[in-house]
Structures are given as C-alpha cells and as structure tokens.
Design goal:
alpha+beta; 65 residues; single chain; Arc Repressor Mutant, subunit A
Length: 65
C-alpha cells in the first residue's frame, strides 16, 4: 500500500516529470516498487517516468481501465 505522499508523487511524475525533485524519499519507494523508472536524457539529466505498473495504479485510482 502506498502512502498519500507516494500517491501524490506518482501523480506528479505523470503530470510534471521535469518538476520532480529526484531526492524525494517517496520517489525511492516508487522506484523500488517499479512504479516509476528513471530515463537518462541526452543532456545527462535523469527524468522519472511511469512504468506500465505505475500507469495501471493511477488508472485504477481514477476508475479507468
């Protein structure tokens, strides 16, 4: 079960991945649970993005399939 902060972080990754602080503790949990992954950009920066499982969690919360 995810905490409210982890759910909020998951929604932020979906909506505004460039604005996420990569040092957030909640992000570590989402990475461990494989709901979020980090992609390496050509600039060398890393950006979080939802995995298929992360997207499924958000769809389930929203009541969508």
């Amino acid at each position: 079960m995810l905490s409210p902060h982890e759910f909020a972080t998951l929604m932020l990754v979906a909506a505004a991945p460039d604005q996420i602080d990569l040092n957030r503790g909640e992000l570590d949990t989402l990475l461990e649970r494989q709901l979020v992954a980090l992609e390496q950009l050509a600039s060398g920066a890393r950006r979080p993005h939802l995995t298929r499982d992360g997207d499924s969690v958000l769809r389930a919360i929203a009541g969508k399939r």
